[in-house]
What does this fold into?
Amino acid sequence: MKELIKGDIEKRFRAYEIAVKNGWMQVDEVRYSEDLPPLGLDFIKLGLQDVLYDPKTKQIYTPNTNKTADISESGQVAAEGGEENED
It folds into this structure.
């Protein structure tokens, strides 16, 4: 039944593009909706184009600078090496 009520592929893919770009769907959720296997991308985009957040480890990773940071319970960010920033 699910296949019968789907819209055409172009409209679905445009909707998925908007959903992923605006952060209310993840790539694996789109793949699930299209009956495709997950890629295992367990990151949430935070903006700045290249900043990734892993909710399981509470780490932020910035690929273009190869830096990681942990989000502490106090809401402060502990940079790689344990220094705390006021971000």
